[in-house]
Amino acid sequence: MCGMVATVAENKENAMQDWLWATAANLGRGIESGEIDPVDLCDVYLAAIEQHPMRDRIYARVTADRARSEAAAASERAKAGQRLSSLDGVPISWKDLFDTAGVATEAGTKLMEGRVPTTDAEVLRVATGMGLVCLGKTHMSEIAFSGLGYNPMTATPPCVNDPDAVPGGSSSGAAASVAFGLAAAAVGSDTGGSVRVPSVWNDLVGLKTTFGRLPVAGSVALCTEFDTVGPLCRSIEDAALMLVALEGGRSVDLKGASVRGMRFAALQTVVMDDVADASLAGYTAALEKLAAAGAEIVPLDVPVLERAFAMSLPLYTADAYANWRDLVEAEPDKMYHQILQRVRGGKDVLAHEYLSLWAELRDIRGVYADATAGYDAVLCPGVANMPPNLERLATDADYYLQENLLTLRNTRVANLMGLASLALPTGVPSVGILLNVAGGDDERLLRIGAAAEAALA
After folding, report:
1. Which of 91, 243, 310, 437 qualifies as a cystine partner to 441, CB 3.0-4.6 A?
2. Where does the UniProt annotation place the signal sequence (predicted)?
3. Which CATH class is domain 263-436?
4. Regarding the domain with residue range 2-247, which homologous superfamily does it belong to in the CATH classification?
5. Does 194 participate in catalysis according to the annotation?
6. Catalytic residue among 170, 171, 235, 421
7. 75, 194, 219, 430: which one is catalytic?
8. Catalytic residue list contains 95
9. Quick one: residue 287, left, alpha or beta (phi over 0 = left, psi -120 to 50 = alpha)?
């Protein structure tokens, strides 16, 4: 009898450990059915975080008291049949640029060390109202101004596929928290690829929402005209449910989604230059799977994108400098020199130049929209390069600059063109594919993503 009891206990413990790797959607279903108690689920995640050898490289701060309180409330709602959403009671992490009341929010920089907001960011407030459980704040690239995830000022999270490489950024800890089983999903921001790059390099789904779709109030700004909020997840279904939870909206119908009969443009301009062999092989194989599942793949050149990329640097740096000038110039020695140099690049951009560039970019967006109007989505390799070596980034300045620009290049198409964008894993470690659609078509993108996910599985 004792042996039988021990076996039952072991089976229960194993099942609870499996929760760490389940999709957020499946955890939500488990809570709904009564098989999972949110309190137990929260405790399993908090214990996993506490015991993980790289905890301090992934989480900047763990909000255990808040998580337990929110989980207890979710448990009572579940027992009463009054759940607030499909993810009510599911534990997630938050990038350390979203304000948390009474808990430091420092945006990965010593310039904000000890900054403790008094209220939650708007998107966190909404998510809490939908029942999501806040596990804590994750490390990130300094002020979110790098796609590499390397941050010598606070911490550099690990890459799930290469212990010697960076994880991608700037939502680096967000991706690591999910990839290492320390959160069911994560919330990050995407200004030039900061949700999608770490999603690609850690084999996750990353959603860059349409600019303005989710509120940025109460989040630390990088570039006011480009900042967006988005989830990093284990599945398209999770991304869809997270979008609902982050805005308090209605769910997207993903049932029966198929790529059969869809027409995809395979973008050629800019995004296919200097693509690493492994990235190219994984992307090509993904296109072949989509075609085999019944999609039409059409190569597409949009030459005007070359001009958009050529003019993009002052648009980003001027915006960043406007947001960070006072803090940066007051204590420049507190900032990593590569980030400092990049921010200060916006110091000499003149107002009339900036406004003229934005007027030109809006015209280019119109040309791009016309060129891509006949396609269900536009595809390209998720990230051109593979995760760069951490030690070399730390010691080779030219390598850092080269890899950072290449890392953010393909994802930046969506930011520059004002699109909604999804990063999907291809099945090749640290290789993903991007699906881009017109801004405002987030729900349609998720349905296309569900179809593509099934074809690539």
Report:
1. 437
2. none
3. alpha beta
4. Amidase signature (AS) domain (3.90.1300.10)
5. yes
6. 170
7. 194
8. yes
9. alpha
